[in-house]
Structures are given as structure tokens and as C-alpha cells.
Design brief:
This protein has 215 residues and is of the alpha+beta class. It is built from six helices and four strands, in the order H-H-H-H-E-E-H-E-E-H. Helix 4 runs antiparallel to helix 5.
């Protein structure tokens, strides 16, 4: 009876060294797989943290932009109030008599003749009441221009509303001038001036140049 010779493949499979290599390959594959998975998880976590940080920085920057205009607001309000108070003290006349006197002084200084000045007061405002003036002026053209310029540059706050040439003869010009200034409501009420009529209605009877309406 003949003896069967084992095949080389069977010998290799039955060899302990072969199984040792196979086990090492399986472990190596597991290690590589775990390393790849760990790398992917770390990348995802790191990317999420970076996105969260970027969003947080954007939110903080947006909040800073929103609150920036409010910084120092109290200080700016106090400065504005101080500027308004200084303007009132310097350029708003204290009473009607001051306005009347100043108009006369500017007329004398420029050489014009005020043939009529009519004063009225508007509706009281929260801080100021408008005092309207309707004046008739006679003088040469240079004199009238000096008077107009002196009104615009005067410390008392005058606003010229309109100028209308009524006549011109022998080098003399007759001009109707409408202008405004302001008084504090209490000072305007104490002046006794008549109310300014609505547009289109007749104005009250004019006062003489040196007198007050109603006197």
C-alpha cells in the first residue's frame, strides 16, 4: 500500500508561522481602520469647533457694532444741552423791548428810516415763540443793504423772511421787509403783542416804528 504525500498548500496552512502572519495582518488592518476613523472624527469635531468659534466672533462683532453708537451718548446729550443753553443766552433776546430797541439801533447805524414796524407773536412753542416783524424802510440802496447785512450779522438772532421793493424815486428806495426773531414763551406772553394772523388774513393795525402794538 502506497503512502500519500501532503500538498505544499496544506503544509503551509498547518504551519504556526502562517497563522501568526495572518493574525498580524488582521490586527494591522484593525489598527489602520481605527486610525482612519479617529482621524475623521477628529476632523469633524475640529471643524465644528472652528465654525462655532467663527459664529461666536461674528455675533460679538455684530453686537459691538450695534452698541457702538450708544457709547458716550449721555456725554453728547449733555454737550448738546450746554450748546443750546449758550445759544439761547447769547442770541435770543430777553424781552420785546430789546428787539424793538435793537431794530432802531441798526436802522440808525445804517442810515435808513423805519417808517413802520409791526410786531406780532406766533403760537407758543415748547422752548420758543416766534416774533414776526413787518417793516417799511426808506433809504438809498447802499443804506438798505447795510441794514440788511447788519440784521443778518447781528448777535440777536434775526431771520429775514422776505424783501419786497415797493417804490423807487430820486435815488431813494422804499422796501418792505419781513423778518423773525424769537422769545421764550413766558417773555413773549408778557410782551402783550397781538397774535400773528394766519396766511391770507389781514394783519393787525401796524404800530409806529418806536412803539409797541396795542400801546
Amino acid at each position: 500500500m502506497s503512502r500519500q504525500t501532503p500538498s505544499p498548500l496544506r503544509e503551509r496552512l498547518s504551519s504556526p508561522l502562517t497563522w501568526h502572519y495572518a493574525g498580524f495582518a488582521v490586527l494591522l488592518a484593525l489598527v489602520i481602520g481605527l486610525a482612519v476613523r479617529l482621524g475623521m472624527d477628529w476632523s469633524a469635531t475640529h471643524g465644528s469647533s472652528g465654525d462655532a468659534l467663527a459664529i461666536k466672533q461674528f455675533e460679538l462683532k455684530a453686537l459691538d457694532m450695534q452698541t457702538a453708537p450708544l457709547r458716550g451718548l449721555d456725554k453728547r446729550v449733555e454737550q448738546s444741552r450746554a450748546q443750546i443753553a449758550a445759544f439761547f443766552a447769547k442770541r435770543i433776546p430777553p424781552n420785546y423791548s430789546t428787539i424793538d430797541r435793537r431794530i432802531g439801533e441798526l436802522g440808525v447805524g445804517s442810515g435808513v428810516r423805519l417808517t413802520r414796524v409791526q410786531f406780532t407773536q406766533g403760537k407758543p412753542g415748547a422752548d420758543l415763540t416766534e416774533i414776526a416783524m413787518d417793516a417799511a424802510i426808506t433809504g438809498s440802496y447802499p443804506q438798505i443793504m447795510r441794514f440788511v447785512n447788519s440784521l443778518e450779522r447781528d448777535q440777536t438772532f434775526f431771520i429775514i423772511r422776505s424783501m419786497t421793493l415797493t417804490s423807487q424815486q430820486g435815488g431813494m428806495v422804499n422796501l418792505r421787509l419781513q423778518l423773525s426773531t424769537w422769545l421764550r414763551p413766558a417773555d413773549a406772553a408778557a410782551s402783550g403783542l397781538p397774535p400773528t394772523p394766519p396766511p391770507g388774513e389781514a394783519a393787525p393795525k401796524a404800530a409806529p416804528a418806536s412803539g409797541k402794538e396795542g400801546e
